[in-house]
Design goal:
It is a single chain. Helices cover 32% and strands 25% of the residues. A nine-stranded mixed sheet has the order 4-3-5-6-7-8-9-14-13. The protein has a four-stranded antiparallel sheet with strand order 10-11-12-15. It has a four-stranded mixed sheet with strand order 20-19-18-21. The longest helix has 22 residues. 43% of the residues are buried. The structure holds 5'-O-[hydroxy(phenylacetyl)phosphoryl]adenosine. The site of 5'-O-[hydroxy(phenylacetyl)phosphoryl]adenosine has 21 residues, from helix 6, strand 7, strand 8 and strand 12. 5'-O-[hydroxy(phenylacetyl)phosphoryl]adenosine binds next to helix 6, strand 7, strand 8 and strand 12.
Length: 433
């Protein structure tokens, strides 16, 4: 089922006409109201009126996370404070958070996009949504919440944390849809098991997971453990929050980007050159309908590619492939580029280890040293020491083979890596560069 049938299945030509109209209006708006954009367009010697086609978009300068930080907290807002009804912020790993604002119309747009997303992920007004994304400055909790209400589903605003109580609620309230980060979902499964409750006896049918990178193997694991269909949802605070793109549960093959609200581009992160469909690079977004916080060619740092092929669900919107990493959290270890998600894929190929891991990077005598801590499964934990040593060696060998980087592997006790209620902390980088 499709929530916004007109816009989600629109023929390309009609969609592009809407995109151009909305783009031109957005450019006029930011040029008139946001000093940053006025300066950035002036510096590039371009006026909004010169953008006459969607192709012209590439003539505009990029906007970076640093630009948003420099405007901390409100200098990028394109609407007066009187009209701002909500503020969110995303915690960066370094520096100041990025602060974003919403007008009442923005909140309504976002709710509709999330209603579309939940529908694509399998939800209907009959469903009960257990929403374990954190409520607060993070956009996950409230984003799903407003979308669920707009769709007409029932939402349990449980937020992250209090995991045992969550399991009791799941058993008693019988929710049918789970929304959470994939790492917290695996933690929920573990705690349920400890409490003697099997997810197979709960009422869940679908799960809508995102806010952090996860792999196809992790999807299989979650689907098996929870006995559900799991889809990937993508978004970022700067662009609106969750609800920028989502997989349909029919195909589960790439995330439909809501192109009537956001134009995606893929660029070469080094040169800024725009790449074609199918080529992998950094994802860039321009918002088309936002009032309070429009973004023009915002560099997400997320790495993916776009797929324009028609989808079995009937949506005509382009699909982005699963995010494989970020161009900035990419680790460079002795000159080799390593994404945590690549290590995860290697780990998930191995028998006996759990999808809980942490990469610890140090610098010893000027050399980078990577240690991969991986949790053992309960069964393997009591194995002979020699077997465990073999397993460590095998993982290390696979990492070397697939990624070309040497890593020391350390198997650790089940449940010893700290669980997160939101996004998992996968990397501890102790190097002082
Ligand atoms: O994580 C919004 C969100 C909430 C998305 C709930 C999905 C579900 P931020 O906290 O601003 O917003 O973080 C945005 O998280 O640039 C990606 O690097 C990463 N990310 C988000 N969704 C995915 C995903 C929310 N499905 C940043 N796969 C983004 C991989 C994701 N990475």
């Amino acid at each position: 089922m499709i929530y916004d049938i007109e816009f989600e299945t629109m023929p390309r030509e009609a969609l592009e006409a809407i995109q151009l109209r909305r783009l031109q209006a957005t450019l006029e708006r930011v040029y008139a109201t946001v000093p940053f954009y006025r300066k950035s367009f002036d510096d590039a010697n371009i006026r909004p009126s010169q953008i006459k086609s969607l192709q012209d978009l590439r003539r505009l300068p990029f906007t970076t996370k640093q630009d948003l930080r420099d405007s901390y907290p409100y200098n990028m807002f394109a609407a007066p404070m009187d009209n701002i009804v909500r503020i969110h912020a995303s915690s960066g790993t370094t520096g100041k958070p990025t602060v974003v604002g919403y007008t009442a119309r923005d909140i309504d747009t976002w709710a509709r996009l999330m209603a579309r997303s939940l529908r694509a992920g399998g939800a209907s007004p009959r469903d009960i949504i257990h929403n374990a994304y954190g409520y607060g400055l993070f956009t996950g909790g409230l984003g799903v919440h407003y979308g669920a209400e707009k769709l007409g589903a029932s939402v349990i605003p449980v937020s992250g944390g209090n995991t045992k109580r969550q399991i009791v609620i799941m058993r008693d309230f019988k929710p049918t849809i789970l929304t959470a980060t994939p790492s917290y979902t695996l933690h929920l499964a573990e705690v349920a098991e400890e409490m003697g409750i099997s997810f197979k006896d709960l009422s869940f049918k679908f799960g809508i997971f995102g806010a952090e990178p996860w792999s196809e193997r992790m999807r299989e694991e979650i689907e098996r453990k929870l006995n559900i269909t799991a889809v990937d949802i993508y978004g970022l605070s700067e662009v609106i929050g969750p609800g920028v793109a989502i997989e349909c549960h029919e195909a589960k093959k790439g995330l439909h980007v809501f192109e009537d609200h956001f134009i995606p581009e893929i660029i070469n992160p080094q040169t800024g050159e725009v790449l074609s469909y199918g080529q992998t690079g950094e994802l860039v977004f321009t918002s088309l309908t936002k009032e309070a916080f429009p973004v023009i060619r915002y560099r997400t740092r997320d790495i993916t590619s776009l797929n324009p092929e028609p989808c079995i669900c009937g949506r005509t919107l382009v699909r982005m492939n699963r995010i494989t990493g970020r161009s900035d959290d990419m680790l460079i270890i002795r000159g080799v580029n390593v994404f945590p998600s690549q290590i995860e894929s290697v780990l998930m190929e191995m028998e006996g280890v759990e999808p809980h891991y942490q990469l610890v990077v140090d610098r010893k005598e000027n050399l980078d040293v990577l240690m991969v801590k991986v949790e053992l499964g309960e069964k393997q934990f009591s194995d002979k020491v020699s077997n465990l040593q073999e397993l460590e060696k095998a993982i290390s060998k696979n990492i070397k083979e697939y990624l070309g980087v040497s890593a020391r592997v350390k198997l650790v006790e089940p449940k010893s890596i700290a669980r997160s209620e939101g996004k998992a902390i996968r990397v501890i980088d102790n190097r002082k560069l």
